[in-house]
Design brief:
The chain has a two-stranded antiparallel ribbon. Helices cover 63% and strands 2% of the residues. The longest helix has 27 residues, at 87-113. The protein has helices at residues 42-58, 69-72, 87-113, 116-124, 128-143, 151-168, 172-177, 181-189, 191-203, 205-215, 217-224, 230-241, 250-260, 266-272, 274-297, 302-317, 341-345, 351-365, 372-386, 388-397, 407-420, 428-431, 440-457, 462-476, 480-494, 504-507; strands at 15-18, 24-27. Helix 8 packs antiparallel against helix 19 (372-386).
Length: 511
């Protein structure tokens, strides 16, 4: 359909092998693609991604099984090392599936982006940078997510997934805070529609969820693959693959494999995210119903309203699908830095905050600062986005402003701190106050330092136990965040003789 030529069938060449015990075995042969080993050559990875995209764009990715493909692929290879692995087979099948599923759409979008009229329009409006961003997005979407290749990236991926499991798994506070997602929906779709949707959910939650899942393929996929959160989706992908993430040869691969041998079993990891998943279903379904109500009120058909509601959920609650992620979440900075595991580390558990930042920016753009009512609307959006979660946390754990601090100052500090958390890299600054930052890099480095510091003191205390629990959690997936709350409460009650309320074993110490 794309190039007007049907690819010829590759004629198999039979060959004979001699087994280890000396037997002669006749094999019928067949097509097997050639790939270069990007673990041994940094150029090979970039070449692999660019080549897959160009083939898809040219309509030849699915027809590379040409009669002389095995010789053509070697021409101009620049002496790159060939990958001798069975993963080549799976990768090739994946590429063909991607081509069949997305090839036409990729071609259509590419034609639009390369038109001179589009480029000129972007130049005249000062948006040429957007064109480069779109091109990088299109290439990443076309080639799909590529896993860790080098030893350094294996370690980065291993730490990222371990950090997610240890900080989010079985975390009761995260489950409770999921409910504040509705405050994030209101600036996107409006309080009226959210209120009506919440009433619908309150009256018949199970029926509403079933109906939404039946109407929306997006919502079904969101929970079949757990793409409501990119980090949880990455953990689940690793479990579904059946192969240890980070598995490799040498010292790094051996170390990672040894640690993986004592990790939590897959079923336990699935249960670790159960509470978050179920709470997010309630929030997403309410958000979807609010979007559908708004679309219906605009006169859209059922099919149009379904797509509109899908978009509302994606904008308000984020999507963990690879093609929906921001460039930095995909690990992409430029043409030369694409899908880097090290870059992905900086957005771990940060998608929710990135969405807050985007919603706040859109609210700012549509605000008429000459209109008092419009300014008031922008102010309410900011409070919903950046103060609601902090207010709920303060209600549970304490932390209200004391006698020497005014509510206005407390709210301002809260909003500024939360807003700072929406900016990648910058969000590490307020996180430093809690011991190393928000990402696996800063937090793990802080845990290592504290473990060393506590060990050098030569005594077993609460700090030593919590420091090592964090490190073990990152390495094995142990739910360290929740365990440390219980450890802190137990230590204060049994060792220090304090009167500790039972709920603090779950919520942590109340201020």
């Amino acid at each position: 359909r794309r190039i007007g030529i049907a690819p010829p069938t590759v004629e198999a060449n039979a060959f004979t092998i001699t087994t280890r015990d000396g037997q002669q075995v006749e094999l019928k042969g067949g097509y097997y693609p050639l790939k270069y080993n990007s673990r041994l050559d940094a150029k090979a990875r970039q070449h692999e991604m660019d080549q897959a995209f160009e083939r898809m764009r040219a309509g030849t990715l699915s027809s590379v099984q040409s009669k002389y493909g095995h010789t053509q692929e070697r021409v101009g290879s620049g002496k790159q090392p060939v990958m001798l692995s069975m993963t080549v087979l799976h990768s090739h099948i994946n590429n063909v599936i991607m081509d069949l599923a997305l090839g036409d759409a990729v071609n259509y979008v590419d034609r639009v982006l390369t038109r001179s009229q589009v480029r000129q329009a972007l130049i005249s409006t000062g948006n040429l940078d957007a064109l480069e961003t779109w091109k990088l997005w299109l290439k990443d979407t076309a080639t799909g997510e590529i896993g860790a290749r080098t030893g350094t990236e294996q370690v980065a991926q291993f730490v990222r997934l371990g950090f997610t499991k240890s900080k989010v798994g079985f975390n009761a506070m995260t489950v409770v805070l999921q409910l504040t997602g509705l405050a994030q929906t209101i600036p996107v779709v409006g309080s009226k529609h959210v209120g009506q949707a919440a009433l619908d959910m309150a009256g018949r939650p199970r029926a509403a969820i079933r109906q939404v899942m039946a109407d929306s393929a997006f919502m079904r996929t969101r929970y079949e693959l757990n793409t409501f959160n990119k980090d949880i989706a990455a953990v689940q992908d690793a479990l579904r693959s059946g192969a240890p993430v980070g598995k490799g040869s040498g010292f790094i691969g051996g170390f990672i494999n040894a640690v993986r041998a004592v990790q939590l079993p897959p079923q336990m990891v699935n249960w670790a995210f159960f509470g978050i998943r179920q709470t997010q279903i309630l929030v997403d379904t309410t958000t979807w119903l609010a979007g559908y109500r708004k679309a219906a009120g605009m006169g859209k058909s059922h099919a149009e309203a379904v797509l509109y509601a899908d978009g509302i959920v994606e904008n308000a609650q984020t999507s963990g699908m690879f093609s929906d992620r921001a460039a930095i979440e995909r690990g992409t900075f430029s043409e030369t830095t694409r899908q880097s595991e090290f870059v992905k580390l900086w957005t771990t558990l940060g998608s929710y905050m990135l969405a807050k930042g985007n919603i706040a920016f859109e609210s700012y753009r549509r605000t008429d600062f000459r209109s008092p009512s419009s300014i008031l609307g922008f102010g309410s959006d900011v409070l919903l986005l950046f103060a609601a979660e902090a207010l709920l946390m303060a209600a549970i754990k304490g932390g209200w402003p004391d006698d020497d601090e005014s509510w206005w100052w407390w709210t301002t500090k809260t909003v500024v701190t939360q807003a700072t958390g929406t900016i990648p890299l910058i969000r590490e600054v307020p996180g430093m106050a809690y011991g190393g930052g928000n990402t696996p890099i800063g937090a793990t480095a802080g845990d290592i330092y504290r473990a060393y510091q506590q060990t050098s003191q030569g005594e077993v205390d609460e700090g030593l136990i919590k420091a090592y629990t964090n490190l073990i959690g990152t390495a094995t997936g142990l739910p360290s965040a929740q365990i440390n709350r219980a450890t802190d409460a137990f230590w204060r009650e049994t060792v220090e003789g304090q009167d500790v309320p039972a709920y603090e074993y779950v919520t942590g110490q109340r201020k």
